[in-house]
Fold each of these.
Amino acid sequence: MGEKSRSIGEKLEGFGQNLYSLFGWNEILRDEEIPCRRSTHKNPEGSKKKTHGVDLLHSCIDPYKNRKLAIITECKNYQWKSINEKKISEWIEELVNTIDCASVNEKISQYSEEFETFNSGILLIHGNDTFNKDEFYGYLQKAKYPTRRHPVNLYIAGNDKIEQWISLHDYINAKYRQGDQIFKFVYPFVGENRYSEHDHIAINHLFSRFVFARREYYKEDNSQQGKLVRKEPCEQYIIFCFDDFSEEAYRYACSMFKHFQFEKAKEYVFCFYPQTEHDIEHVNNNFINALGKAEKQYALDASKVKYDFLINPKISRVNY
């Protein structure tokens, strides 16, 4: 917030001191106060802004434009009763103004080799006692978003997104980043027969309904006189689904493997993030059957299909 702001440690308490490093982003600085350079920047009470607080500054690759982005994160960690439409509007303007001044700040410009584009920000809002998802997204719809001559890419996340990201990281780290496996996030180019691969997840994919990945691993067996024999690498294409739970949604996810021409994989893995116990039950009862009803040009060989679940901390593990 700038003047007399709480430390980043206090703000991040409850949702991870190193949230973005989980996904391979490079932290440039944290908890930095910079002078305000714009006379139009005001405090909520209307007085002239003197400083801005940069809670976190990261860089990561934009896989579609192959350039480094600078991303400022503003962290808000409050009781739910203190989070409302008015406060969120203030926080949005605060973040946009911070990006405005940080982009011309002398100290931050020393790190210019770390990024090429400086117009993105994430507003992290954490209810540290409880969280009402429906109310939260209602606030976002009604919040005021300032206009600027130079557009700012603004992303907003609440408890639900933060939990989703941590679940995604924990799953990947436990299942796909052990031993000599190769795991990459995949970024298809819409309308083009190509894609790029990176170790990190891009900012827009953190907020996407679907995240693609590719995994190579080795299968072993002991069929030859009890000796372990290493086979050729097995390739999986994986889609992490944060979409609705319906047969139509399942078929749509299936169609994307074909649409982006990932047919060469030996295995296809669909990994779902359930919101309720009913979602788990729905996948178990309907997913494979739904794939059989897909249009012929989008159908997958069911023998190559697997599915799994990310862990939602609000659902008892007994139900998985």
Amino acid sequence: MYMTAGLLMPIFAVIGAGVDLGQAYMAKTRLQQACDAGVLAGRRSMADGTYDADAITAANNMFEFNYPDDMYGSTGVTFTSSQRGSSEVTGTATATVNTILMRMFVTNIASQFTMGILGLLDPFFIFRDDNRCIHDHIAGTIVVDAE
């Protein structure tokens, strides 16, 4: 029973990493597909071998249709396309995908670790000259001898 309780946090961490990495993989794949679609739409709209404003608009519209700003909880979605050569269009797409489960796990572990270390070190500060523990320094309190 104790072994199961001790292994719950690592099990949840592995599950959280799997869910978050799966979401990141799906976002990457979809972002690549949207970038490809945008570049192809831009190339199709090229007139007389020039990549003008109409072709750029067509590429951007196709990209935005295939990868909306909030897809998979992503932020900072950008797409840029440019002409390379007389009949070639290249594109670059970026997005930031936020983790869901690992963010909660890391935040919880970090707070527990910090409070655990403070809880262990706090009593040792009482032996200093000012007789103030860490919690006294944080709260701004002073130890007074009542004689």
